[in-house]
Design goal:
This protein is an alpha/beta fold. Helices cover about 35% and strands about 25% of the residues. Strand 9 and strand 10 form a beta hairpin. The structure holds adenosine-5'-triphosphate. The site of adenosine-5'-triphosphate (ATP) has 10 residues, from helix 1. Keywords: ATP-binding, Nucleotide-binding.
Amino acid sequence: MSSLEARGLRYRYPTTGRTTVGDRAAAIDDVSMSLAPGRLVALTGPSGSGKTTLLWLLAKLLEPEVGTVRLGDTAVTDLSTAQRVGIALVPQGNGLAASLTARENVPLPLLARTRRRRAQAAAGERSDTALDAVGLRESGGHLIEELSGGQQQRVAIARGLALAPAVLLADEPTSELDHGNRERVLHLLRGVAERGATVLMATHDPEAAALADAQIALDEGRRV
Ligand SMILES: Nc1ncnc2c1ncn2[C@@H]1O[C@H](COP(=O)(O)OP(=O)(O)OP(=O)(O)O)[C@@H](O)[C@H]1O
């Protein structure tokens, strides 16, 4: 697997009301980083420092004003390239479809990639394995809206795991979890890194950050 490289990323949210772009502070300002495969890295910083924005830029869900993202030799210029090279985001607030079951949600990104029947069957198996890994195999038939916040968060993590990504970006993946499940999820993220992926985890949790191989700290959109 390859290193994820960001160079000089800058992003300002679009204007609302009477503010103009020039008046707005950049949510991410001149951020560069190099994340080696096999590493679990914590992205830290106070609320509003730009962690979510940076993850969205790396996943190409936001387009930077300036700056580049590369995975190895590939310039990651748009969302479809990001998906093709295996950059996956587990978003804050889980991003699941509330009226589908956990077992229906987990394979959705995998199913979106293929029409081949054998790949679709494999997606089901991978999803069950991922639900098992987060301790939710028994709850697979429940609608997302019937699950607790912590269970929903684990379903979202299972969806990221099922993709077997080259880069896993996880936004506050343990914020809603009890102690046991937090340990379980951190162990799983470590396992993803040990299989050769790059894992970047935004977190407010000092204990989770301390378990990471390295920390990238943000303040007011800049690295500190
Ligand atoms: N949709 C938006 N429109 C305008 N400004 C936004 C939007 N989302 C975030 N911001 C602003 O961008 C900055 C960075 O926000 P971001 O959500 O990336 O921070 P964060 O470090 O992830 O915060 P938290 O730890 O609270 O999740 C903040 O000043 C925030 O107010």
